[in-house]
Write a structure and sequence with these properties.
Blueprint (H helix, E strand, L loop, with lengths): L2 H27 L13 H10 L4 H11 L26 H12 L16 H13 L11 H11 L17 E11 L6 E4 L3 E14 L1 E12 L12 E8 L2 E7 L7 E3 L15 E6 L4 E3 L3 E11 L10 E6 L5 E5 L4 E4 L6 E6 L5 E6 L8 E3 L6 E13 L5 E12 L4 H4 E8 L2 E4 L2 E5 L2 E7 L7 E3 L3 E11 L10 E6 L1 E2 L2 E2 L6 E5 L7 E3 L2 E2 L3 E4 L2 E14 L9 E13 L3 E4 L2 E3 L8 E7 L6 E10 L4 E2 L2 E4 L4 E12 L4 E13 L7 E4 L11 E3 L1
Helix pairs in contact: 2-3, 2-5
């Protein structure tokens, strides 16, 4: 189309439109006068004139009737959807899409390019208000309630009801219902919530009588008790949820002022009445919850508080209630029924979140002293060397930010001994970020925060941390070098000037209080060694069998020993720790009373070894043998309970080599029960 043609078409159209405007002016002025078909305005034309201010809203209905009696520009059908609930700012769903399609078809709404339908925002609200003004629906506020729904449904030919709140009451039994005996419950009185916490703060109960009813709407009001603190709820409350009979039926993000309406103050019912306090309301619609006749209904309100409230605005108390007629339901007759009571108020507090208080504690699963087998030419490991726990027994969840593990060795340089260090937390492994070493001590820092790996420790939770070490080749240090690992403590002494653990409150981001230190057992590094495993233990009493015989305690411990890297030679003898110069199996007597005094007989009663050399049992490299240590105790004075505990295994890597000590783990499998010997 050329420019000249386009101009001619626009001119012709404007001439026709001017003629129609003249005609409708006569229609409005003289209601009995009709306009010829050629000049008659359509409903769409009248809607445009209303929006331009040519025709006032109060004359729109008459003009519509004389222009054709319908607001539709085309055929009406139920294709524009069925509307069964009120819609307002923040509403979402298929019915919002249907409303937007309807407003687009009527010329009141234009959806910008790239914007999806389905969310009731400010644009939809203003477009709906224009439609309401054109249809003489008052107030024209952009709220899609029963009056507007009825108008749109009628225009669409919808089968949805316009007499009740929820559109259809055909599934409800009985006739007209009533909502009775509304009563606030004391379940959630004076709840204390921290920043970022979710909790229920209000509960009320009522009964449905005479017929079934479908709960459609619940209004909830909030009012700050202290006007001197932050009193606008959207700055302290992130979301509100409604529960009916224990089930969440709706929730709403309310951290925006547009989610609230300002309502009547309820200051007279607050514990600390302050003149000028303001109440704000959130409205939940389209709940569609059916309650049967004679059923009690429990309505609960849950809030999630904001997680970054200015400390100067806390602690703030809030009143919460469901106002009179704040609960709306529809019965089988399609009649709206209401309940609620503005006098039934509950209060709750929002207080500053706790920064957290954690402690470093011993782990029940920490290792006893071990022989860690290293290699002469290559690195070896990783070995588990230390376990401890972070205990968060407070009501605030925290993030673990940094952790410093200290390592110590009998060698002159820790760097010659330790090659690498890692920690494992809840199955996830972390590498250290930096190390500071001075002679035989090193501090290994794990910076979880800097790596965006902050470790959460929830309230009332205890997290176990496993420390693992890899060791350099044994040619770097002496055979039998020892190592120890700790957090805030090493070699039995606390480490002054070292911050071993830092943490922060999840809700506040501020530093948590950290207490406690721990250190692990001392481990020995050798190029060969043994490991031990308990098999069985027993404790019995042998009665005297003849005149002059005495009652004895008989104890047996069966263990399995495995030789690592090289053959192991274990001295044959068994003795107590006080006289174990050449014994391979060293035990001690345990007691629940006075120390043992009397005669002790101890020996290996059974073993599975194939050879003995120089009074030593030989266990070939990579193989295992079992040994039964048998001890008989004949106390000087009877009446005390005794047992035995295996403490040390002494071995060498040659038949005539120097014996070295392996400390048996301090566990139940290496200790017998106690029995009383008379």
């Amino acid at each position: 189309m050329t420019t000249a043609q386009l101009f001619l078409r626009l001119t012709t159209t404007m001439q026709k439109f001017i003629a129609k405007v003249a005609g409708v002016a006569m229609v409005v002025a003289f209601a009995a006068t009709s306009v010829s078909p050629a000049a008659a305005l359509t409903a769409a034309d009248i809607q445009m004139l209303v929006s331009l201010g040519v025709i006032s809203a109060d004359k729109a209905t008459a003009a519509m009737a004389l222009a054709g009696g319908s607001t539709s520009t085309g055929s009406t059908s139920s294709s524009c959807g069925s509307f069964t609930r009120d819609l307002t700012l923040g509403s979402t769903g298929a019915d919002v899409v249907a409303l937007q399609d309807y407003l687009v078809a009527k010329g009141f709404l234009t959806i910008p390019a790239g914007v999806s339908k389905g969310y009731f925002g400010a644009l939809t609200q203003s477009s709906l208000a224009k439609y309401q003004a054109a249809m003489a629906i008052s107030p024209a506020a952009g709220y899609f309630g029963p009056m507007t729904r009825a108008k749109v449904s009628a225009d669409c030919g919808s089968t949805g009801s316009s007499t009740g709140s929820t559109g259809s009451s055909t599934d409800l039994s009985g006739g007209e219902a009533s909502l009775n005996d509304y009563d606030r419950k004391s379940t959630y009185t004076n709840e204390d919530l921290e920043e970022g916490e979710t909790a229920k703060v209000f509960a009320a109960e009522f009964s449905v009588e005479d017929a079934d009813a479908e709960i459609d709407r619940v209004d909830v009001r909030f009012e700050a008790v202290s006007e001197s603190l932050e009193d606008e709820p959207w700055n302290q409350i992130d979301s509100v949820a409604i529960f009916i009979n224990g089930e969440e039926v709706d929730s709403m993000d309310v951290d925006d002022e547009d989610s609230w309406s300002r309502e009547t103050s309820n200051a007279s019912n607050l514990s600390n009445e302050v003149s000028g306090n303001r109440a704000y309301e959130v409205r939940f619609t389209g709940l569609d919850t059916v309650v049967e006749e004679d059923e009690d209904v429990l309505v609960e309100v849950e809030v999630t508080t904001s997680d970054n409230i200015d400390d100067s605005d806390l602690t703030q108390s809030w009143a919460v209630w469901i106002p009179t007629d704040g609960i709306r339901a529809i019965d089988g007759e399609g009649i709206d029924q209401y309940t609620g009571d503005s006098a039934e108020v509950t209060e709750f507090e929002i207080e500053a979140a706790d920064d957290g208080d954690i402690s470093v504690r011993e782990s029940d699963d920490d290792l006893d002293a071990q022989i860690l087998v290293v290699d002469t030419d290559d690195k070896k490991g990783p070995y588990e060397v230390f376990r401890f726990e972070i205990d968060n027994s407070e009501d605030a969840s925290i993030f673990l930010n940094t952790l410093v593990i200290t390592a110590s060795t009998s060698d002159s340089a820790i760097g010659d001994v330790v090659s690498d260090l890692t920690v494992e937390i809840d199955g996830e492994e972390f590498d250290y970020d930096s190390a500071s070493t001075t002679a035989n001590v090193g501090d290994y820092t794990f910076d979880f925060e800097d790596n965006n790996d902050e470790v959460p420790v929830e309230e009332d939770e205890r997290v176990e941390i496993v420390v693992k070490a890899e060791f350099n080749q044994a040619s770097n240090y002496a055979e039998g070098t020892v190592v120890q690992f700790g957090v805030g403590k090493i070699n039995g002494a606390a480490l002054s000037g070292l911050t071993a653990v830092t943490a922060e409150g999840q809700a506040t981001g501020d530093a948590s209080t950290v207490t406690g230190t721990q250190e692990g057992a001392v481990h020995t590094l050798r190029t060969a060694g043994i490991v031990i495993e308990g098999v069985s233990e027993s404790a019995t009493v042998d009665a005297a069998e003849f005149s002059g015989d005495t009652e004895k305690g008989v104890y047996e411990l069966e263990v399995q020993i495995t030789a690592l890297e090289e053959d192991a030679y274990i001295a044959k003898y068994v003795s107590t720790s006080g006289s174990a110069t050449v014994a391979g199996f060293v035990f001690s007597v345990t007691t629940s009373g006075s120390a043992f005094a009397g005669t002790t007989t101890a020996f290996i009663s059974e073993e599975t070894v194939d050879s003995e050399v120089n009074n030593r049992y030989k266990i070939p490299e990579g193989t295992s043998d079992t040994f039964t240590v048998k001890v008989e105790l004949d106390p000087t004075t009877g009446g005390t309970a005794y047992g035995i505990s295996l403490d040390t295994i002494k071995f060498a890597t040659t038949s005539d080599g120097t014996l070295v000590s392996y400390t048996v783990p301090d566990e139940d499998e290496y200790e017998t029960n106690k029995v009383t010997v008379n």
